[in-house]
């Protein structure tokens, strides 16, 4: 925590927003609509703007007639073993539909996932943004300029500035020209999680997290969280937890993007000993991919293989989103085992016992078909078909880190709370750096929605606060 230093150059703003991801952009546009003059900074160069948002799949979880607000809240409660902060979760789903309409009014191309993303079929990701995260940023970012909102890149917030009464009055930033104190009536933190910070990963997630593959922006290194904690903000949520996914093991170490093999429910997954270790068909991918990504990280060598045969391949049911990664194929299980360096006799046993356990029924990839196994552990609860038709295929898969789950605590006006549950005057937060929503597992499409809903809320609230000063 710093007081303003007279020696540093200063600039003056009404609402200062840190971060150009969806949370920051939504906050800026909402603050502008509420009559304020927001100013946005991002530490990244413009070519790397919008953090994790840019790398995202563009899926949005949103209530519908079929999946009501209450059913999505129940789902969150179930997936978090009752730990989700229901007050915050209710805001998330209450304001989801109006958030989507707001994006639509701004001209953002929102469609059904079936249009571009059949790999997320069957789940509760009701909407998809055309062109994934890149499509979202290309469509939304120019709206800031059109609304007269200035954005300054390569400007990294390093400390929050406070007045003598503890009110946040700006941020000290590093720019290519030097250090500046940016004074503001209100500050909104929208700087994402700490997933790209190796030291913080090890500190909070454990030693094994040190060399995790980072799916998103290398600029999400947790300064926003640290600055707020130094000021006395309350840490909240699953600080030891993170979001993962089932990724092609050939993915880049950083900023890999959408290299998911989301279609694993139509495969069986074995580890490098040739053994199954989870129920691949427990449900559609949007409620299992995060915990399965982490389950793969627990396997020897942090690697596993999604196996399927020609029947599934002919229907193009299994693929990596990054289509350049093709499956490894062979005419026999023995040859495939050799290629992927899995013991051939053990793999053969696994395949034989799986095939023998498959129950009759109609295979239907579009619904939970109940076509399951009997008498083996782990079972496969849906989409179980014998793997008996050559050629045979394998995608090597691993886990990785998408974003961290621990964060700051905000109230229902997006005000950051201190450790005594009091709002820190002048400080707001939105998006990935909020805690209290997700614990261990995660429902697909809920994080972009959180950035949208809480970004808008923080923008409107900060504008109101700034105008009252
Ligand atoms: C590969 C991938 C796929 C995903 N797919 C989906 C999906 O389909 N659906 C879904 O709901 N979620 C998805 N997510 C998660 C979702 O994209 C993010 O959780 C969400 O976009 C976070 O938005 P945000 O605005 O909070 O943070 P970000 O978009 O990460 O933006 C944070 C910004 O803050 C800037 N910043 C950081 N530190 C500082 C600092 N000190 N000073 C100034 N600026 C700073 C960063 O440069 C960055 O631009 C995905 C994520 C990834 C990586």
Task: Report what the structure shows.
With 469 residues, this protein is an alpha+beta fold. It has 14 helices and 18 strands. The protein folds into two domains: 295 residues, FAD/NAD(P)-binding domain; 152 residues, Alpha-Beta Complex (Flavocytochrome C3, Chain A, domain 1). Strand 8 and strand 9 form a beta hairpin. Flavin-adenine dinucleotide binds next to helix 1, helix 2, strand 7, helix 9 and helix 14. The site of flavin-adenine dinucleotide has 45 residues, from helix 1, helix 2, strand 7, helix 9 and helix 14.
Using only C-alpha atoms, the radius of gyration works out to: 23 Å
Task: Work out the helix count.
Answer: 14
What structural category characterises the helix and strand content? alpha+beta
Global shape: elongated
Distinct small-molecule ligands in the complex: flavin-adenine dinucleotide
Mean pLDDT: 96
Strand segment tally: 18
What CATH calls the topology of the largest domain is: FAD/NAD(P)-binding domain
Structure summarized in a few sentences:
The chain is an alpha+beta fold and 469 residues long. It folds into two domains: 10-242 and 407-468, 3-Layer(bba) Sandwich (FAD/NAD(P)-binding domain), CATH 3.50.50; 247-398, Alpha-Beta Complex (Flavocytochrome C3, Chain A, domain 1), CATH 3.90.700. It is 30% helix and 21% strand.
